[in-house]
Amino acid sequence: MRNLAMTDNSSSAIIGQSRSLRQCVERADAVALTDATVLILGESGVGKELIARRIHERSRRARQPLVVVNCAAVPRDLFESEFFGHVKGAFSGATRDRKGRLETAHQGTLLLDEVGEIPPELQGKLLRALQQMSFERVGDDQTRQVDVRVIAATNRCLADDAASGRFRPDLYYRLSTFPIEVPPLRERADDIGMLSDHILAEIAGRLRRKPPRLSKQQVRQLCAYDWPGNIRELRNVLERVIILGSADLDAVLPPAPKPRAAALPRTPTETVDGDYVTADEVLSFERNNLIAALEVAKWRVSGKGGAAELLRMNPSTLASRLKALDIQRPAADSLYLRIGGRATITALARDLLGRMQADPQVGRFWSDRSIVGIRQEEKLLIQYLCSELGGPTRYAGRDMVSAHAHLPITASDWRVFLQYLERTFEALGLDQGSRRSLQAAVGQLEPSIVTS
After folding, report:
1. Model-level pTM greater than 0.70?
2. C-beta atoms surrounding 27 within 10 Å
3. Adjacent-strand bridge partners of 178
């Protein structure tokens, strides 16, 4: 398996061949071709900014700036000035006009690093700017338009923060159109030897030292460590190795961290509430997991690169589970496959709901909804769209048309919905044929939903 690398300079290379890293990079490469908003999740030190740079450098905006903002480092009283800029005389010390980060990123990409650290009282101002792609400089009433692709990164669980009220749910949904999780180093043991060689060569070149060679025993020792600080901690340890010229890793490795508390994995739809999952949630997770593997394998069950190999299952066992869960291969000409399968439909639903929930007109339909209720609505919408577009499973939830028929949805509301639908199509980079097919399907719903 070839190595994965991004080579604008040696310190920003993505090195490794582990399955978890390959899946992460494949998702990044897929979304890079669109303008969809991306939320990069992962522990501190895993390389979230490297993934963001890879997305930018493989996008149509690669020749334009990538503007990185460390949200945790922006003081509250300077937040608006930092993001939106200011005019001369706007406040004490404003001796000249100044562009903000949003305006500087025009036609390029804005990376909001540590986005979960933005104070709650300032999140609404950011949401409005991202929703409308417009802003006013501090001290100025002129509204300025921008064209920016947004990538956010965090080491927090924003879904939990949204549920607790620490982070605005509408901003969370606006940012999480296409989530990418960067695996921690302890889940990439196969990469540690290769990654260490790369880091040693890079550090030795900077320090003008000869790069040492790690023995197999030393690599095994590195692999056995838990790496709570991830790649950043590995880099620090290897730099100490070069500086001290020590072949004894025990002399430079920090004390072994305490064992991590065991935790159940969160489901893709984040429906876990506590320390257990229901039987329905287990089945939902299994169904989504099997479909994800099948889509990566282009719906091949067995053979080299098939879903059974990816899942490390016996092909006959996988076939039996597919039958039990009533998962069927979509027709080759289905709209489901044409637009990119479940991943695209999930991104579409999240982007569209995020835009509408933040809108001052149609956002009223979500004003009294809990975060749990909003998540459930998103989950049902994804299932419904997958089924209606010819996906691998049949929708068995509540009827989506009748569920909305009682709402006072006006013709004006419908026009707002169609505008956001088109913006979502543009953000996801859907081709014109797919757009027309989706618009036709949506148009059939109008008489049943819009009140006269």
Report:
1. no
2. 19
3. 38
Burial environment of residue 402 by CB neighbours within 10 A (0 to 12, 13 to 18, 19 or more): exposed
Please give, one letter per residue, the 3-state secondary structure of 47-76: CHHHHHHHHHHCCCCCCCCEEEEEHHHCCH
Q: With bands split at pLDDT 50, 70 and 90, how would you rate the model's confidence at 8?
A: very low
- Domain 10-181 is classified in which CATH homologous superfamily? P-loop containing nucleotide triphosphate hydrolases (3.40.50.300)
Q: In what order do the strands lie in the sheet with 109-113?
A: 66-70, 109-113, 149-154, 38-41, 178-181
- What is the enclosing helix (H) or strand (E) of 242? helix 230-244
Q: Please check whether residue 69 is in contact with residue 47, taking contact to mean a CB–CB distance below 8 angstroms.
A: no
Q: Which two tokens stand for residue 14?
A: 């993505």
CA 183 to chain centre: 13
CB atoms within 10 A of CB 2: 6
Mean pLDDT for the chain?
Answer: 83
Domain 185-251 indexed as CATH 1.10.8.60: yes
